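Question thread 4412

I'm putting together a teaching handout and wanted feedback from people who do this every day. The idea is simple: show students a protein as raw sequence, then show them the structure tokens that encode its fold, then repeat with a second protein so they can compare. Below is the first pair exactly as I plan to print it.
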Amino acid sequence: MSLTPFTKQQLLPQEEKLEIARHKSELFIGIPKETCFQERRICLTPDAVNSLTSHGHRVMVESGAGQSASYSDKEYSDAGAEITADTKKVFSCPMLLKVEPPTIEEIEMISPQTILISAIQLKTRKAPYFDALHKKKITALAFEFIKDDDGSYPAVKSLSEIAGTASVLIAAELMINNQFGKGLLFGNITGVPPTDVVILGAGTVGEFAAKTAIGLGANVKVFDNSITKLRRLQQHLNQRIFTSTIQPKALLKALRRCDVVIGAMRGKDRCPVVVSEGMVEHMKKGAVIVDVSIDTGGCFETSEVTTHEKPTFVKHNVIHYCVPNIPSRYSKTASLSISNILTPYLLQIAEDGGIESAIRVNNGLKHGVYFYHGILTNKAIGEWFGIPNSDLNLIVF
């Protein structure tokens, strides 16, 4: 009996198909010294570096990079990092970690095909920055865009927590200012009326400002145009506080009585101005404004950008604190926070066999990619700057 071709094929020995495991990759990370004005943070703490080096990875730190965050070169060296004073040597590493986005001059020092992980600070970017990344065929990830499993943005949330908590502590310092402050203790002392605090915005900054102010015994009022945000804030605080949508009459009444007002508003492009100069004129003499929203324009008409060296000015007898990048004031806390977020991602990238494999299996990390081998993959950036862009899902299979 003759066999059909199909039957013959069935009887032939077949190749055994084995699952190919992802090979771990060894990372070589460079951490240059931050040169941006007032930037005092560093991406990785010595403990994080030790965690990476103990897994067989190399970390090169520029001498003095951790000094502003109270970390010495010796601490990094003891953790297994290579210390060098040669800036170009650090920028030539295959993977770079920075808090601030690199300058055009720094991008010139970066080797082609480098992986860059940093903040992007989109509002301060200009088209030549993206052109420089394109020419070097860089793969770039932004802290602000990386998503967690629950869909939140861990880096943004963490720095907002610091800014919200810090805003109240800064206000507490300014209230006892000898030159112009009212000499008031931020709190609720028996027989003394509590401090009145108005918070504009019910996001993460507003929530942590409210938690800190309530913890110190203040009387807190929160204004926001989103009822959903106000409801969520009350649930997170686990207590009922005064909340209101932003209506000029109600807001003016609260501003007239308050000792401290914290601006924590956010807008799509620019932060909305919700407090006019006329409203500020009606505030108490010696009252304090802390405009956390100043990095996106500020939500007070009287706000002007100040610095960590000269953080305040007085206008209409009201103390204004309008320093962008408040977390940098608390450089060690902020560095710990960034380091805690980045370290697990770095270990995961190595475990998955490199950035290409990692973004295939981790959607949160993929969301952080805005440049892939010199190709812009973020639609919002492309539309903002008028730059051609491609869908990352069509490039990475």
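The second pair follows. I'd like the answer to focus on this one:
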Amino acid sequence: MIPYGRQNISAEDIAAVTAVLQSDCLTQGPQVPLFEQHICAVTSAKFAVAANSATSMLHLACLALGVTKGDYVWTSPITFVASANCALYCGANIDFVDVDRYTGNMCPKALESKLKQAKAQNRLPKVLIPVHMAGHSCDMQAIWLLAKSYGVRVIEDASHGIGGSYQNRKIGTCQYSDITIFSFHPVKIITTAEGGVATTNDAVLAESMQLLRSHGITKTPQIMLRPDEGDWYYEQHALGFNYRMTELQAALGNSQINRLVSFVEQRNKLVATYVAELAKLNVTCVIPLDNSYSAYHLMIVLLPGHVDRKAIFEAMRAADICVHVHYFPVHLQPYYLNKGFAEHDFPEAEYFYQHCLTLPLFPDLTEQEQGYILDTLKGLL
């Protein structure tokens, strides 16, 4: 079976993890700070904070921005559920902004309309979470300007986006956001097995997320109530969580990040072949904005309306090609239906879902495998 995504693990990766296993520190050692430094280097952000998952980092980012009971957080309905769940963890209310039907990314026009209506109803969100679907940056300048004009903070969910750029600046530099979140799940651009990182240029936000990821505990003398108690002493200053990244995860990330550029280049090379071949068919490829460079976590196509997507999906799977669908709209999940959302609430997101199909894409995908995928899809269409 050709998977839709697959990690690339080298001998150097294995050696890096093995070295940590043979060291004195399996957690809270030097590897996590080093990984954070590497993330700052590749994004040009001032601060990076690592945790055990991107879901944890989304939660911490919301908390750092003061999201609490009664607040509203808006995100995209075309995303993994974590982009919405993070607000609920804080006791806040969640709502969605419809997407562009051809990109799956948050639509600035839909956002502007929704913000105007929310202001009139005195229900503006505290935080907005646009999602860089498939690694393609949202139109962040337009989104940021709208958010700032209404006093809304912004978290970029760039779980798919490490290694990409927007307006010639790396995703994660936080030019148009308060915080950016990356994921390092095995099928992402680089992996730490599980893991996530937040970048920010705000020292206060970074310190808040650092505190909250480890039980709210600190040993920083400058903020301690009893700094002279002794070297054994620590203080809890907030109700935090055990969201720490392990040394094993960080060591894998420190090795993988050396291949970030080559991974993204290979993904884009494979996509160029997909786009050229699929242009011969009535298939729309989901591509990034003209002023951006995608990390291409996913290769998504939109099938013609007359095509039976489920039949195509099942036939491709039967041919040992693990196509996928990203994503079933969050507002239509049973949990969210029980919160009052309904079908047709976000018609563009539902259109995107009904037509999208994810084709295999990962750096080790061979020319022969890609040819087989394309030939099989062409035959079915």
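Top answer:
Good format. For the second protein you could add a caption like this: The first strand starts at residue 47 and ends at 51. Residues 141 and 236 are 38 Å apart (CA to CA).
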